[in-house]
Design a protein that fits this description.
single chain, alpha+beta, FAD/NAD(P)-binding domain
Length: 453
């Protein structure tokens, strides 16, 4: 088997496969190493949402062209094929522990508008990955599954990649697209200078026959405040099960030692939201666990480029991962064409990363989505939610939600000052409290993997 390539990619998710596709279209030889035996098997919990069709994300306004079977990135100037199932949804609804609701988008109005009223759509990630694999194979990309990468080393002009089975490949450049628990990042010591903010664990069921107030919406109940809080999420699936609508129902918290299956069972069987699941049927169990780091500021070391969740805070979403892959794959092709086998050749990707990730998305804002349920009691959250009567803009960007929530809360400050001055004082500490202080218990409970392997 050939051992030398122009580019080796570690990880065959949206970022890795997209990088391979665009690099191979530029005529360079590419090998992908994937730990799973079957790339399109989705073995962990995933919301599978397009982020976003109702607003901007990373400077891009996504377009889903259903007629031509394309997901388009018009600002960046490319598209990717998707001919699988999809299902629109029309709002993001956040519930307090007592059932008060804040709405990002008016569900009924948006449903009446049809496509123009949707917040976004859910897609089938398995179908999407299978399509990318087929495109890569047609372009001659060598795809090696069941390949567990255990070491990455630069020697001279080559980067050598070693697997647990004894395979060794080499290339002038490597793209690490091996997800938020990136082994490559640990091997190269990339996590040492990233802020560690804890470990988020989730448990989910795929379920049918739910009785939801807004069936085709992202529903986010704050099941229980505390440190850590228990957050619920309900999102429709793109496909049906035996002709019935299917939803992903999950809970998340930042104490990885908790019994998350038991927490999920409490959510669907005993919480105040249990009536939604009275006649529901559990179809499949799923889980996921991952660390929350600050982003990698300089995603390049020893001719290894980090793309997608491997260098992100939390997750890049599918749209962010695809953009990373597109830019990384094209940048490597350019560097090889110009015979720039160093950081100078990768500068276009580093500049893009800074502009569209570091300068555009404030990861501390994302982390502070946890502030209210950590710092306020159930009854205080119920009170705050009850005061916000307006329907907020239809959006899905988790970095934009805090901004609109902040604007809505600013309008109710006079009422809080008059009725609950002690709560206003507590709320005043949100903005000034450092993230590492707010999340001190979350950080203590997590599993920091910043060491070099």
């Amino acid at each position: 088997m050939k051992s030398g390539y122009d580019l080796i990619i570690i990880g065959a998710g949206p970022a890795g496969l997209t990088a391979a596709k665009f690099a191979a279209e530029n005529g360079i030889s590419v090998a992908i190493l994937e730990r799973k035996d079957t790339i399109h098997d989705i073995l962990r919990m995933c919301g599978m949402m397009l982020v976003t069709l109702s607003g901007n994300y990373m400077g891009e306004r996504l377009i889903y062209n259903e007629e031509k079977k394309l997901i388009c990135f018009p600002h960046h100037g490319f598209s990717v094929k998707y001919d699988g199932p999809a299902k629109d949804f029309y709002s993001w609804e956040i519930y307090s522990p007592g059932g008060e609701r804040i709405k990002f988008g008016d569900y009924a109005t948006n449903v009446q508008k049809g496509k123009s009223g949707r917040a976004t759509a859910v897609y089938d990630k398995s179908w999407f990955l299978r399509g990318l694999v087929e495109e890569c194979q047609k372009l001659g990309v060598k795809i090696l599954t069941g390949a567990n990468v255990i070491d990455v080393r630069k020697s001279g002009d080559w980067v050598f990649v070693y697997t647990a089975s004894g395979m060794t490949l080499k290339a002038p450049f490597v793209i690490a697209a091996d997800g938020r628990t990136s082994r490559t990042a640990r091997i190269l010591g990339m996590n040492k200078n990233r802020g560690f903010y804890g470990t988020c664990a989730s448990w989910a069921y795929e379920m049918t026959n739910l009785s939801l107030p807004s069936p085709y919406a992202l529903i986010q109940p704050l099941v229980q405040s505390g440190d850590p809080p228990m957050l619920g999420f309900i999102v429709p699936r793109a496909w049906n099960y035996n002709g019935e609508d299917l939803w992903l129902v999950m809970v998340s918290d930042t104490n990885p030692s908790n019994d998350h299956e038991a927490l999920c069972d409490y959510f669907v069987e005993k919480s105040r939201f249990a009536p939604w699941f009275k006649n529901a049927k559990k179809i499949r169990k799923l889980g996921v666990c991952g660390n929350m780091y600050g982003p990698i500021v300089h995603p390049f070391k020893d001719n290894v480029i980090f793309a997608g969740d491997a260098g992100w805070c939390q997750e890049a979403e599918m749209s962010g991962a695809v953009m990373c892959g597109w830019k990384a794959g094209n940048t490597v092709a350019f560097a090889l064409q110009e015979k720039l086998y160093n950081e100078e050749g990768i500068k276009p990707y580093l500049d893009w990363w800074k502009k569209y990730h570091l300068d555009t998305l404030d990861y501390t804002v994302f982390m502070k989505n946890l502030a209210m349920p950590i710092l306020c009691t159930d009854s205080e959250i119920d009170y705050i939610f009850s005061k916000i009567k307006e329907t907020l803009p239809t959006l899905l960007d988790p970095y934009e939600v805090p901004r609109h929530m902040g604007a809505a809360m600013a309008k109710i400050i006079p009422a809080i000052q008059a009725e609950r001055p002690e709560l206003l004082k507590k709320l005043g500490g949100f903005a000034s409290m450092p993230t590492e202080v707010m999340l001190k218990n979350t950080i203590r409970a997590g599993y920091n993997c910043s060491f070099t392997l």
